[in-house]
């Protein structure tokens, strides 16, 4: 099969400004030169998850509307992070099959620079996210709806003590995006650890999770992209 006939579509969360910057890392894992394109959307403050196109600048002034990655090589796109206020959103990657990518989030809000990573992911209709909001830790979520129609995201929760519940559904507009800490969205997870399940009846969603300590350090947390019926039932 011709590699160039089967583009992949993935997305990754982004933050820039307010002591944050993001580096997008894309790798050509094949022996052929491959092409791709990045588009960006940023959340509207108070917009309930609505986004608008984001004309995001990069330090190397490289074009993101179309680019080529030589065989067996990697390209980097780094945001400047110099704006006074943080802007959040997501990047949508359309690329030839064989292009893999991830994002590095950098925070300079403390005396030490902190980095965390998240893979560029293909949207799915169901995701499992372990969370840890205990002992001075908190899990933050960024959820994107890459579809042209609105999505209602259902949520099931199971805490480490075995208790299950249904979290408040998340309504995302077309091409919408939200970023929030879990206890704000789901108060029943405050001070607790467990597993969250997010799913849509049709369409798809994309997700990243980060775990923050009360000292400002953070690390990426896994999100498991699944399909099929939910596995957490509300008892």
Question: Which terms would index this structure?
Answer:
mainly beta; globular; about 240 residues; disordered N terminus; single chain; five-stranded antiparallel beta sheet
Number of strands: 18
Mean pLDDT: 90
Strand content: over 45%
Count of alpha/pi helices: 1
Instruction: List SSEs in N-to-C order.
Output: EEEEEEEEEEEEEEHEEEE
Shape: globular
Oligomeric composition of the shown chains: single chain
Strand pairing plus helix content: what structural class? mainly beta
Q: How big is the Rg? A: 18 Å
Main pleated-sheet profile: 5 strands, antiparallel
Distance from first to last alpha carbon:
48 Å
Helix content: under 10%
Low-confidence stretches: 1-6
Q: Topology, pairings included?
A:
Layout: E1 7-16, E2 20-28, E3 34-43, E4 51-53, E5 67-69, E6 74-78, E7 87-96, E8 99-107, E9 114-119, E10 126-132, E11 137-144, E12 151-159, E13 164-172, E14 177-181, H1 182-185, E15 193-199, E16 206-213, E17 218-221, E18 224-226
Antiparallel strand pairs: 1-7, 2-6, 2-8, 3-4, 3-5, 3-7, 8-9, 10-15, 10-18, 11-14, 11-16, 12-13, 12-15, 16-17
Task: Please provide a written account of the structure.
Strands 1, 3, 4, 5 and 7 form a 5-stranded antiparallel sheet that branches. A 5-stranded antiparallel sheet has the order 13-12-15-10-18, with no helix packed on it. The chain is 2% helix and 53% strand. The longest helix has 4 residues, at 182-185. It starts with 6 loop residues before the first strand and ends in a 9-residue tail after the last strand. The relative contact order is 0.22. The protein contains 1 helix and 18 strands. The protein is an all-beta fold.
């Amino acid at each position: 099969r011709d590699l160039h006939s089967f583009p992949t579509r993935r997305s990754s969360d982004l933050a820039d400004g307010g002591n944050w910057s993001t580096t997008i890392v894309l790798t050509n894992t094949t022996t052929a030169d491959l092409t791709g394109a990045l588009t960006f959307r940023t959340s509207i403050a108070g917009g309930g998850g609505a986004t608008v196109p984001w004309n995001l600048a990069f330090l190397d002034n490289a074009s993101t509307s179309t680019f080529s990655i030589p065989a067996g090589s990697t390209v980097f796109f780094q945001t400047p992070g110099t704006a006074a206020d943080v802007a959040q959103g997501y990047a949508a990657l359309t690329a030839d099959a064989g292009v893999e990518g991830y994002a590095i989030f950098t925070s300079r809000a403390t005396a030490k620079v902190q980095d965390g990573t998240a893979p560029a992911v293909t949207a799915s209709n169901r995701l499992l996210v372990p969370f840890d909001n205990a002992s001075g830790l908190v899990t933050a979520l960024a959820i994107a709806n890459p579809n042209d129609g609105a999505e209602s995201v259902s949520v099931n929760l199971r805490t480490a003590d075995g208790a299950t519940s249904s979290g408040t559904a998340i309504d995302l507009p077309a091409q919408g995006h939200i970023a929030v800490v879990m206890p704000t969205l789901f108060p029943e997870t405050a001070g607790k650890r467990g597993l969250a399940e997010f799913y849509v009846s049709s369409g798809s969603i994309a997700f990243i999770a980060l775990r923050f300590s009360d000292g400002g350090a953070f690390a990426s947390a896994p999100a498991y992209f699944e399909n099929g019926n939910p596995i957490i039932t509300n008892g």
